[in-house]
Amino acid sequence: MEWVGSLGSVLYAVGALVCGLAALWVARFGAGERPDRWAGVAALALTANWCFAAASFPPDRLVVSLTEVARNLAWIFVLFRLFANDGRDESLRLVRPAAIALAIVETFQIALLMLARRYAGWPDASLMVFETAAILRVLTAVGALVLIHNLYVGAALSSRRLLRWNAAAMAGMWAFALNFHTLAYLTGGAPPELVVVQGLAAAIIAIPFAIGYNSNAAGLEFRPSRTLAFRSLSLLVIGAYFAVMLVLANSLDLLEGDVRALTQVGLLIAAGALALIWLPSDRMRGWMRVTAIKHLFKHRYDYRSEWMRFTNTIGRTGFDETSLQERTVKALADITDSPSGLLLVPDDDGSLVLGASWGWPNADIPHRAMPVELATILEREGLIIDFDEARKGVEHHGELEFLPEWLREEQRAWAAVPLLHFDRLVGVIVLARPAITRDLDWEDFDLLGIVGRQLASYLAEQSGQVALSEASRFDEFNRRMAFVMHDIKNLSSQMSLLMRNAELHADKPEFRKDMLVTLRNSADKLNLLLARLGRYGTAGNQAVEPLDLAQVAKKLVDQFGGSHPIGIARSEQAVVVAHAEGLEQALAHLVQNAIDASFDETPVTIEVFSDGITGQIHVIDQGKGMSPAFLRNGLFKPFVSSKDGGFGIGAYEARETIRAMQGRLDVESREGLGTRFSVSLPLRSAQAIYQGSGTPTKETV
Fold it and tell me: Locate the Histidine kinase domain: which residues (predicted)?
């Protein structure tokens, strides 16, 4: 139809005129301080050149296609320069890979033009070249639209008013190109109606684009939404995937007969299976998230989102019975996308032991998880340990000498973050390696350090609340004991008076004798009870004497052997300085606990030996065992008992009694394996050397 061709030439001529005038206006009157002004002038001029070529020659001429490629490259460059409007090199660096990729895809059109001219007489080859060119143009349009969207959404509110004309014009241009080439691919040829109006579309787009340079430029701050960037990257990956599958499916047209049908069905099944397995995977999502953050943002973290998630995790309450310690680990692990973590807390001697774990299966952690020397370095320097660096021999404050072997060998261990509260080490969180491995950088260290201090304040506040609650319970217990002791004293005085009166007035010898025996026994029992109650909190004033732990162990076997199997696996002479009654009472409680935790036929084992400085007596059972959380938070907490009618002060009293004798009570336990209570007391000979004296006699400690 000749009139269609004539109308197309007229509209292309109009487009060339309008684009040329727009280029001259921007060059003369456009905002001179905008770095993208001359790129916009070049793009408008090349668009006018393309419209002029399309008005002068048929659409299939090589000159028309080459000028179209030059026009598209110029508009891609304009889009690239718009991101630099704030003058920061970082913005250019972040979008450069995307712009270069679009330019490369567009440059492929030149090679396709050469192939089309070479195989012009081959219909099948010409159709394949045409469809490939259409697919590449579709990908270029989609990529440009995504960048334009991020450009406008990521701009500061004050900059959007100046940017909207340019962004709207370019969005309209690439949207038109997307629809044009999509229809061309689906129909197998360029739609004549759209070919005719391309010149008019170019003229319409040139006007608002030129208007955008009428205002003075303002700083353009590139800060797109992270969620939006991640979704845009996901759409690009999915689009590229399906484009590749589409190209592969169409390339099968070169095959013939059943082979082609069989191959197409197989490709369809393989593509669907790959999409179901690969695209929804956590690893794929992690890769896309890391890629988006690395290339589209100056900072790795969205601090507002991280703070909101951190606050929600720490302040979460519900019926899941998650402790604060576990939520502490999760809150820090969520920041680095770590799948699990451990919380190590200080023990009595300053070393670190396991306090809680979150999502860390099959954790084989020794009782002393981290030595006191390393804990001191972390407390003094606030050092965050990068275990990958440590395994390569890189150290900062001499920490490698004290790094535990289990942390070196545990490949899941990625970083150790100290929790400092007023320069005091509250704990250390060991983070597991994220699914997408990366190196820790300065931003990780800064954020983890700040969050670690915040978490330390929560843990310290909880410890303070527990201490206040414990002190309140002690105060209540002491007040109750004061009333009990007062009543017992009164009763003892009354009975003593009755005994004295009976001695004076009883006439019958038999009655007097029985009465005296009864009253004397009652008074002795009450006085003994009163003495025991009065000893609470005064263990340090009890008389001590040399004791052989082997003999003490034998007494325990004699005392409990009739009710449960008890054996001595190791018995060496170990003479210590201790209070006999207090030590026997503390050890009796430990043995009774071991019996209660064991099955009927499972023996409890006692070991006695000396290490040259202290005497050791261990009580070992093969019972149910205790969890790390219970060891830390429940075993030695007074007035908390799992037994009906129990005071819940047995384990606490045993530990305090042994401490008053300058000893230690340590516990190691594994759920399902058993428990070992270890009592250490200073040897008599070692204490004599330390005090600079000979063999001690009875004294007080």
Answer: 483-685
Model pTM score: 0.48
Q: Mean pLDDT throughout 681-694?
A: 70
Q: d(Cα 453, Cα 460) in Å, to the nearest integer?
A: 10
Residue 240's nearest CA partner among 269, 267, 277, 279 is 279
How would you classify the pairing of strands 424-432 and 543-548?
unpaired
Under 8 Å between Cβ of 402 and 373: yes
Distance, in Å, from the CA atom of 229 to the CA atom of 226, rounded to the nearest integer, reads 5
The strand order across the sheet containing 699-700 reads 575-578, 543-548, 699-700
Q: Which residue has the higher pLDDT, 348 or 396?
A: 396
Q: To which CATH superfamily is domain 2-224 assigned?
A: Rhodopsin 7-helix transmembrane proteins (1.20.1070.10)
Rounded CA separation 606/569 (Å): 6
SS3 528: helix
CA proximity to 133, closest of 103, 105, 167: 105
Cα–Cα dist 99/77, whole Å: 7
CB atoms within 10 A of CB 473: 16
Distance CA 652, CA 636 (A): 5
Backbone angles phi, psi at 621, to 5 degrees: -130, 165
CA distance 419 to 457: 8
Three-state SS at 428: strand
CA atoms within 13 A on the CB side of 238: 12
CATH 3.30.470.30 fits 313-467, yes or no: no
pLDDT in tens, 462-484: 888 878 877 777 776 776 676 56
- Per-residue 3-state assignment (H helix, E strand, C coil) for 390-406: HHCCCCCCCCHHHCCHH
Identify which of 655, 567, 696, 551 has the alpha carbon closest to the alpha carbon of residue 619: 567
Domain ranges for the chain, please list them: 2-224, 225-298, 313-467, 469-534, 539-700
Superfamily classification of domain 539-700: Histidine kinase-like ATPase, C-terminal domain (3.30.565.10)
Write the DSSP string, 561-614: TTTS-EEEEEE---EEEE-HHHHHHHHHHHHHHHHHHS-TTPPEEEEEEE-SSE
Alpha carbons 348 and 666: distance in angstroms, whole number: 10
